[in-house]
Design brief:
Length: 315
């Protein structure tokens, strides 16, 4: 599970497992890190996985790699637990560049197989929740490669709100009959209770999830700024007819920010913003020729992100 570059492996002094390995930063013609013919003028953070091992290193002016290692040794995690994943995110926030390879989100089988202390949450989710912001994915269209949807002649950029919702929800099994409530305790007032469901018989399942206005506002700004940078129209899709308060909050925040800060700029570029129901938006996207930005809540964006890949598939 060790990874080293241009140096010998060293031990793990302390819980975080830090070690330093000298390395020369890749130059303009280096093929390291996939940066062929592209100079690296700033530090980067790269996350390399090996099963549940996660290594984060920073390439700095000192031409050294600083490793933070979380790995499974004899089936046991280091005492740092999931802290190294948070370190990765904080380092990316500092240097503004991150390269992440695939990692494993453990399930019940993995917990038993590796004798993990707990079923760790998705490292992707942990990193995204710390970074905040929006994930944008755009297809690279080649004229000589036909697409599954022949009408798509321009890319569709999928914007995903990479924060909270199901990815930091609290879910549990309700073992039997009883009442599930959500309680809000203000810092300066009495509690407010909301009934979720009165369970009968064998029970069922329940979940509580949330988002924050500040993150939704940042999501809106990044989406509008992307639309202006591409000079493409922007669509936000939700299911506010069902989740009137939850999805309605996204819709209201987007509309308020657009009206106050982006409407005149959009009109100057002859583009616009529109909210659509998620099911209506799917049909609209299939019938369109592309050339727009479709921005979604976290889970919706997760399920739509394969769309840019589909645009490049062989018919």
């Amino acid at each position: 599970m060790w990874h080293s570059w241009n140096g010998q492996q060293k031990g793990l002094p302390g819980e975080r497992g830090e070690c330093q390995v000298p390395i020369v930063c890749p130059g303009p013609k280096s093929t390291d890190y996939g940066l062929q013919h592209q100079p690296l003028w700033r530090p980067t953070v790269e996350c390399v996985k090996d099963q549940f091992g996660l290594i984060n290193y920073e390439v700095g002016d000192s031409k050294k790699l600083v490793f933070h290692v979380k790995e499974v040794q004899d089936g046991t995690e280091l005492q740092a637990g999931d802290e190294v994943t948070k370190d990765v995110a904080e380092a990316i926030k500092k240097y503004n560049v991150g390269i992440k390879r695939t990692t494993i989100t453990p399930n019940e089988k993995r917990v038993e197989e590796f004798k993990l202390k707990q079923m760790w949450k998705s490292p992707n989710g942990t990193i995204r929740n710390i970074l905040g912001g929006t994930v944008f994915r755009e297809a690279i269209i080649c004229k000589n490669i036909p697409r599954l949807v022949s009408g798509w002649v321009k890319p569709i950029i999928i914007g995903r709100h990479a924060y909270r919702d199901q990815y930091r929800a609290t879910d549990f099994v309700v073992p039997g009959s009883g009442k599930v409530e959500i309680t809000y305790t203000p810092s300066d007032g009495p509690q407010k209770r909301h009934l979720v469901h009165n369970f009968e018989g064998s029970g069922g399942v329940a979940m509580g999830m949330y988002n924050q206005d500040k993150s939704t506002e940042d999501f809106a700004h990044s989406s509008f700024q992307m639309a202006l940078s591409k000079s493409w129209r922007l669509y936000l899709s939700t299911k506010n007819t069902i989740l009137k308060k939850y999805d309605g909050r996204f819709k209201d925040i987007f509309q308020d920010i657009y009206d106050k800060q982006y409407e005149s700029k959009s009109e100057a570029q002859k583009i616009w913003y529109e909210h659509r129901l998620i099911d209506d938006m799917v049909g609209q996207a299939m019938k369109s020729e592309g050339g727009f930005i479709w921005t979604c809540k976290n889970y919706d964006g997760d399920s739509r992100t394969p769309w840019p890949k589909v645009m490049a598939l062989l018919a």
